Amino acid sequence: MDSDASHSALASIRNIGIIAHIDAGKTTTTERILYYTGEIHRMGDVDKGNTTTDYLEEERERGITIVAAAITCRWKDSAGKPILINIIDTPGHVDFTAEVERSLRVLDGAVVVFSAVEGVEAQSETVWRQAAKYRVPRICFINKLDRIGAEFERVYDEIGDRLVDSHPIPVQIPIGAGPEGSMGEFQGLIDLITMRALYYKTEDLGSTITEVPIPDSVLPDAELWRERLLNSLSEKDEKFTDIYMSHLEGGDLAPADIEAALRRVTLTGQAHPVLCGSSLRYVGVQRLLDAVALYLPSPLDRPPVAGTHPKKGTEITRGPDPDGPFAALVFKITNDAHGDLSFARIYSGRLKAGSRVYNPGKDKKENCSRLYHIRADDREQIAEALAGDIVGIVGLKDSVTGDTLCDAAHPILLERIEFPETVMSMSIEPVSSADKGKLADTLIALAREDPTFTFRVNEETGQTLISGMGELHLEILKNRMIRDFRLKVHVGRPRVSYRETIKRAVKRVEGSCIRQTGGSGLFARVTIDVEPETQPKGAPVLRFVNKLKGGVIPAEFVPAIEAGLREEAKSGGRTGYPLVDLKVVLTDGDVHDVDSNELAFRFAAGDALRKAVQEAGSVLLEPIMRIEVVTPEDYLGGITADLSSRRALIDQTSSRGKLMVIDARAPLEKMFGYSTAVRSLSQGRAGYTMEPLEYAPAPDSMLEALAGM
Questions:
Q1: Rounded to two decimals, what is the model's pTM?
Q2: Domain ranges in the chain?
Q3: Which of 250, 440, 695, 702 counts the highest number of beta carbons within 10 A?
Q4: Tens digits of per-residue pLDDT, 193-219?
């Protein structure tokens, strides 16, 4: 393929995610997109459990998205040019926020869906922050305008007020949906760029769109919103300012000028076009597809991906060039009956089926035996993938989520994906001893697939603990073991995953490992200083500093000392929970000419850290959750009192339409079973969301109680 053809092919690709709070309509919107692009010929329904992207049994039963599903479709832009759209439909439930995180890490753009009734909700803010972290250009879609209580203007204002660095610009407004709106009153849309009214025919599933002049009854409102559009654009884009000033003096203002300016401000993240409709009632989805083609970036519009040289540590970039050195990031792994399927975003170069690639993080070569384009749970085998593609790879053995794949002759290490820490655990054991080995294999497979799932075996009791992001996360993992892996297991009740740190700094604590009984023995002494130090997010929980002088301990033993410290920190607190936020300084030690080895120094380092923690005193850290409760005002007092009884701190109470919103922080330990409590306090009319916020010191009495167990 020559460079012009490659450039043209890349310019026609859109890698986008559909992101939102749970139940805003992401999956229904995706289903409509697939229908209008001709990928499917019959639309599924979330409530009936037959949508394309919710293909897991668990998703169909619960009516929610659990795993991010990738799918490819084709659309034509306003000029008739074909556009290839790779879509990832992401979960909205907070327990599966890692699925959103890893998807946004590799996507070029996103459609953020909001419910016109509920507006900007807790998880809306979370996914917006995640997209902002990776500088992903976004367009907004205010959905569910057919519902009673839908308010376009309120939600539009909330986007600007509540979301960080958001600059909404209206592109469409609804006809007939207001505070007292109902299904019958929502009639269509007004396009503020062309100033035309659009009516969708529901009888043919929205395929027929009638475009007519704007009715006189809503024309004044439309003109006010168009002025808002033009003023916002002129504030954000200098080139458009000149065109707009010329227009005010009598010059032409073509729709193409507005669209070009909207594209520029969207790509730079200065603004976010806002569209609207009702996916369920087939209104507005085709124009949303037009907006994806018009405003969201192709791989060519994104800055080159940055990485480092794995040996030299120097910064390197890779542009989206199919003829450049190969570089890709593995962002997701799924495990099924056919083995592991690794999802990768190719940033540069090309990848052929059957080729060998280099994983610089693991310093290993990998086989890419087969390549696929993914269509939810379906696969289309391909011979080659180019820069800009998102593909499935079969054959990778050692690569996990966040690993780089590249050309061995041109190595690059791309930035890994950060995931939140687990906050909840439960014990698990096989029903029969015959399943013991199978359980271990299953846990390894699930941990490889899901970076927010961890497990460990308590060496003293032999009990296996699995950890995840919440009750729903752990329940679904348990169900997968039973259903997909055909395991019979007993599980304990979910419990909080605590952490520990130390109260104060301690100096010159010595640890040793001396076993000399004739023949080759073990000998090592290390001396450390330990102090509490909050580590930045994403950094190792223990910062190791080597201050040895004069070769007291040979340099080859220092990595073993660090490994021993980190191993001890994993479960070295008084209660057996991991130690975090530590700075450990290696200051002195002793070595034996014959009996000293790496194993001895690992043991000695662990011994030193154990003694240091005992001397410094422990602080128990508990996960604090961010909670948003939305309730009718009648139940506000009872819900507030109940939260206070759970050690919650209420940050603020505000109104959202006719509902009240309580923003609070509470320890996870007190929030078990809250869904039942909030339903009973509000006669089923209140709802809530909860996500991890931080780890904070717990009362001393809790540490004593856990240490005594």
A1: 0.81
A2: 3-301, 305-414, 424-497, 500-616, 622-707
A3: 695
A4: 999 999 999 889 999 999 999 999 999
